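User: For documentation purposes, I need each entry recorded in a consistent format: the amino acid sequence on its own, followed directly by the corresponding structure tokens. There are two entries in this batch. Please keep commentary to a minimum and don't merge the entries.

Assistant: Recorded as requested. Entry 1:
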Amino acid sequence: MSYDIKNKVALVTGANRGIGKTIVEAFIKEGASKVYAAVRKLDSAKELIEKHGEKVVAIEVDLSKPETIASAAQNAQDVEILINNAGVLTTVNLLSDEAIKTLDFEFDVNLYGLVRIAQAFAPVLKKNGGGALVQLNSIVSLKAYSDIAIYSASKAASYSITQSLRGLLKEQNTHVLSVHPGPIATDMAASAGISDIAESATLVADGIIDSLKTGDFHLFPGSIAKNLGEAYASFAQNAIEATE
């Protein structure tokens, strides 16, 4: 299912920095008519609004607070493309006393947040012709790393949910794209200690635009992600993508 973002209305969670901010910029450059910058604190979108004027609208969304998601869906009834980019990452050791508490925290945002936002906005997308839902997963959705084991688990779970959403939302003509970046130059990469191998966030933003146009389900932006994606391609095509 091919999808062109030109003249479309998008909403991007976690839009105030990193990958989310870069997606907002890329969508406006590509011709989106309006982008909702979904952020926890409205003031954090000030720079985007000053630069792009009425094309950017700040809206409160905290993936751990269902009431903000419900309010956003009610107030942004014109959304045609939903990009769920927001997420959290900690480096708590899986064997530490804090592991269970951290599992609850990361799953609440990275997994339950996806479900909450899909439930709230699926009717909006349906009303507006179907549109697209883009979920920012990660290469750790497929390959876990022990130093970010909890994050890896949360993203593996979100990838599983993304696959299910693909089948469910297909019925309402909503295209779903699962994005699996490798290390990207963001604050999150810095906190994980991988800035030295991180690549530009524009690879993710431009890749999303291109993948929507070609109707792909999987996107692996960046050189590390591309290598993993190539190794995974046969299974993805014959098992994951062929089932829907």
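Entry 2:
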Amino acid sequence: MDNSKATKTTAAPGEQGEIRNLDFLLDVPLQVAVEVGRTRILIKDLLQMREGYVIELDKLAGETLDVYVNQRLIARGEAVLVNDKFGLRLTDVVSPAERLEKLG
């Protein structure tokens, strides 16, 4: 028997200090979105949009941007420029406890 790959055991649900092998989740794709801001518009305004039209958002310039994973807020950050591409520097990450609280 080859013991070179040790596996973690899973304790009974609810036990403190339970150890889980979550490696099988590492390749699950997630949808990540960075939200700059939101607004509501009427259909008639939507139909009038042309090149150069400006949509005013509810956030002020310089405010943090929201990071959503599968439509759940997980962090906030600020826009940065990296090699001519936009990026996001995280400034605040929602704690695991807060994320679990918002699930139910």
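Summary note for entry 2:
Residues 96-103 form the longest helix (8 residues).
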